[in-house]
Amino acid sequence: MEPGLYHLLFISAALFFTGVFGFFTRRNLVTMLMSVELILNSVNLNFIAFNKYLWPDKLDGVFFTIFIIAIAAAEAAVAIAIIINLYRSHQSIDVENAEDLKY
Amino acid sequence: MSGSTVIFYLLAALTLVSGLLAVTTRMIFRAAIYLLFSLIGIAGLYFWLQYEFIAAVQIVVYVGGIVVLIIFSIFLTQQAGDELPRQKMGRQLFSALAAFCGLALVMLQLYKHDFIKTKNPAIDPGVANIGSQMLGVDDGGYALPFEVVSILLLAALIGCIVIALKSKPETK
């Protein structure tokens, strides 16, 4: 079967829920961050697929993808700064050990 | 099947399999490497769709930037050879169930929906068109979001330095 819009949307949805599964099961902050990156990438793929197959006369999907990539880079950098700070104070980056705000 | 179709399915398999391995493997360094392959697979899909600029941005920012940052933080925060502790079976089961139900729901909605394609002629998603619209201030231009994102990146840069800065011991 010739690949088209639905194939790309399936890949995007499958990747999104792979990331959701990882976000639910992982308890290490770095691996949770990896799951978030997978989710953001699936969204990017979705935007590009819609732009390519439904609105090839516009470039809006491309711009959304570029802005999402820029924001994802900023988010990853801030998250890793927080993780390193947390490791310094708790000697662990497991979310089960980072519950000081709970009580 | 034409060569293009074969390449598409190979890229899709690379992306999905390494994405799945990245969230299930218990070796954290291997998870980062699988994530790298998944991101490369997505860049390949962008090349396959002939959005070369986005593919290049994907490789430069994700593969060259974010994955390297993640690998650095793995080395800074734990022994790379250690395995992650095994998760509770019930949690894994219910997470898999939730993810699968979500996927099934989305795909069901998707196949029932008919997308309507535009009739207008396609324009080239090359660097020239992207650049002139990105910095355009007239209708449809993206100059304002561009500036906002640049402020955001500056804020993130300063924020990272402030957060990760080692606090100095009190000196008299």
How would you explain this protein's 3D organization?
The complex is a heterodimer of chains A (103) and B (172). Chain A has 103 residues and is mainly α. Chain A is 75% helix and 0% strand. By secondary structure, chain B is mostly helical. In chain B, helix 1 packs antiparallel against helix 2 and helix 2 packs antiparallel against helix 3.
Task: Please give a quick description of this structure.
The complex is a heterodimer of chains A (103) and B (172). With 103 residues, chain A is mainly alpha-helical.
Query: Multimeric state of these chains?
Result: heterodimer
Tally of strands of chain A: 0
Instruction: Note the gap between the termini of chain A.
Output: 56 Å
Number of helices of chain B: 6
The average pLDDT of chain A is 89
Structural class of chain A: mainly alpha
Strand fraction of chain B: under 5%
Order of helices and strands of chain A: HHH
Count of helices of chain A? 3
- In which range does the helix fraction of chain A lie? over 70%
For the record, give the distance between the C-alpha atoms at the N and C termini of chain B, rounded to a whole number.
76 Å
Q: Structural class of the secondary structure composition of chain B?
A: mainly alpha
The biggest sheet of chain B amounts to: none
Instruction: Assign a percent range to the helix content of chain B.
Output: over 70%
Largest interface: A-B, 69 and 82 residues
What best-fitting shape of chain A do the alpha-carbon axes yield? elongated
* Strands of chain B, total number: 0
Average pLDDT over all residues of chain B: 88
What fraction strand of chain A?
A: under 5%
> In terms of per-residue confidence, which ranges of chain A show pLDDT below 50 for 5 or more consecutive residues?
none
Q: Mind telling me the C-alpha Rg of chain A?
A: 17 Å
Task: Give the secondary structure arrangement, pairings included.
The complex is a heterodimer of chains A (103) and B (172).
Chain A (H helix, E strand, L loop, with lengths): L4 H21 L3 H25 L6 H31 L13
Chain B lengths: L2 H22 L3 H21 L3 H26 L11 H24 L14 H8 L8 H22 L8
